[in-house]
Amino acid sequence: MNLKSSTKTDVNMTELVVEIDAESFEKALEAAYQRQKKNISMPGFRKGKVPRKLCERTYGENVFYEDAINAALNFELPAVIIEAGLEVVDTPKVEVTSADRENGVSLKVVCVTKPEINITDYKGIEAPRAEKEVTDEDVDQQIQMLRQRNARMVSVEDRAAEMGDEVNLDFEGFFGDEAFEGGKGENYQLKLGSGQFIPGFEEQVAGHKIGEDFDVTVSFPEDYQMEDYAGKEAVFKCKINSISREELPELNDDFAKEASAEVDTVDELKAEIRKNLEKSAAESATRSFENTVIEKLIDKVEDPIPHCMFEQRANSLMNQFANQLKQQGVSMELYLQYTGMDQDSLKATYLDRAEGEVKLRLALEKIAELEGLTATHEDVDKEIAKIAEMYHMDEKEVRENMPLNALSQDIVVNKAIELIKANAVAEPVEAEEEKKPAKKATKKAAAKKEEET
Questions:
Q1: Residue 175: is its pLDDT beyond 90?
Q2: Pairwise CA distance, residues 144 & 138, whole Å
Q3: How far, in Å, are 90, 203, 303, 329 from residue 86 at the CA level?
Q4: What is the C-alpha to C-alpha distance for residues 389 and 384, in angstroms, rounded to an integer?
Q5: Is residue 158 scored above 60 in pLDDT?
Q6: Cβ-count burial of 120 within 10 angstroms (0-12 exposed, 13-18 middle, 19+ buried)?
Q7: Helix 266-299 and helix 404-423: axis angle, to 10°?
Q8: pLDDT score recorded for residue 283
Q9: Residue 338: which residues within 8 A CB-CB, separation 6 or more?
């Protein structure tokens, strides 16, 4: 297979003219016959023993053309593409322009190529950084959550049920005088205010005492999942068997010691909680800042990118999601049925994310090139060790199964990300807010100028 010409026909599009000479084509035809002959039968010949010439005379001389050309493309086209210096991002489209035994085969191969990204001003990207100040109220909320996690349930017998109580309940639902399926429960544990039941149900249970028989009247929501029940009014005949309330542990030094092995007093517990909240707030602020920096980097990518790259990334994300569902024992078909979606609508939800990820990857690869970033042997060894530890594998096994070129490229891209983050500039939130009115004013001025013209 010989490359005759390479012509850039459009942005990210190159057309190759490729030829298979007559001698090579004849060898490919013979190979195609040898592959197919075991399945060929004709009267007077045993299966697999029909001569090639008889096959061509019977079915046409081009009977083996398609198989021969496809085999040649599979084996030789990748080398031709490399010879042309192309990095393709989609399956090339091949058109046979001529084919015969005397002259061989001429092909037109249309290749979608990886886009060349132009990116500048990637150092010093400005983004707001707002770190939440931890207040005494925040600390008190955490203390309250700790107390609630360590709460115990205490029986209540001297009063009616209140919102926030847990009741043991018998109930049966009726449409008119007829009980409906799924509307009956015995010794059901229900926390009033949890929202487990139809809106209005739990509020009507509150106010009733142990042993009391009472009715609860509610209407099923219009969008209720069981269509036969949607919008219908139902009466539940109820009886409370027991009532329990949550009793929080006393906030004292003993509680502090139980809550954390690192403290002895309530004040020390509060100080520890404050420290953890401040650490969490700082990490959250950093993540938000870095995410905004990355978003601004993506916005700098304005070069045309083949849509097939977004499609491929969206497909990859969908496959990852399908694997996650499978691990949870749910098939993609069942998920789509449950959500009322199909493959196309699900894919559409991934396309925006896919576009951002593709643009980011291309930008980072270009930055790595501009900055001369590389993956050293030490970098690769560390990454392999990390992967081996994560998946409980032997490092040798990782090396044998991991494409090292792709691993090296990922390392380089990660270095580019760290470079961008390290050179980003954090702005006070006030500075970012001050810019917004200016932008609006600029838009108004531009609109006014357009009206005047």
A1: yes
A2: 10
A3: 12, 69, 18, 43
A4: 9
A5: yes
A6: exposed
A7: 110
A8: 94
A9: none
